[in-house]
Amino acid sequence: MNDKISIRLFDGFEIRKGDKPILTGLTNTRKTKLFVAYLLVNRDRPVTHQELFELLWSGEDYSNPATALRTLLYRFRSMIDKEDAKALSGAIISHRGTYQWNKELDVSIDALDFNALAEAGINPTISRSRRKEYLSQAIDMYKGTLLPDFSSEPWLISKSASYRDMYIEAVLAYIDILKSEDQMAKIVQVCDNALQLAGTSEILELEEQIAKLRIANPEASEKDSVIGYYNEVIELSVKLQDEIDRMQTELQEDQVEPQAFLCDYSTFRDLYNLQRRMQSRSKATIFLGLVHIRCDEESNSDPLYIEKVMKDVVGICQRLLRVGDAICRKADTEVAVMFPAESYEDAVGVLERLKAAIKERMEEGVIVVYRVRPLKSGRD
User: Could you tell me if 133 and 243 lie in one domain?
Assistant: First the structure.
């Protein structure tokens, strides 16, 4: 009997031991399921407690996030022990404030297997027959949306899009091989299936039309007016894909620092107005906070001391706020912050935590006052 553990991420989330689904209790505990799924998708790196806490309890106030995360890990391990799934006993590794899915675990994960097969099939240095075999397996393995239960989660959208792009690239490489074998009917079938799984793709739609034209007129040449037009559009589409990849590489930083974005007031103002525009077409509510720091009378006259205090305040804001939040020095003793929150009460909670952290780290006599307002939308 095959007791190999396999994990499905495409078109659902399921863990199987051989042919039998196991750990089905995960479907009843959304946070535990999300905790495990997030570590699986990000298995190539350790994930900090802070990152996991923001994912699982965004907007909620917990005094001890580490304990809350340990509870989820305990639930997952209890499910493993209950169902005697020993192969998963070391699935999640805990180390120095991080959790990580064990990459050495002997389990099959469909998304990773698909990616490995697709990359092997795209490789032009191996024989055409082996490429065709790898590509065929990869195409059959792709089942659509990655973790559909969490498809609206911002962290998953880019991951899912990456797998979709790899799928389309694998399909196009497979089509090139089918063209060399003059298998036009097979190309139509492959394109039709791919369009149903991946949704709209201009290149796949064009390839399908060209194959249909060749079935109708096998003698048509590459310079046939319609086929020639379609091929030109495909060529331009491929060039544009390469260009947007280069543009993305050029625009993005090498690595996003795991803390809030510190900028000058001019940039902060641009971000504010951009967020106003975005807020007018999304459900997210962005809040503007202003924090004022006042030292005692003796210290308040010392510019060097005030500068040291404000530098510490900015550092505290960077550490406590999230990666997508923005901070700037509004004035000598004021810091402006901008962040999303589920409600006004949650936004106040964020500023209260900042205030408490600042007062805890400062000397007595430092006064911290804040105000917070939701951004007006672009229509207001």
Answer: yes
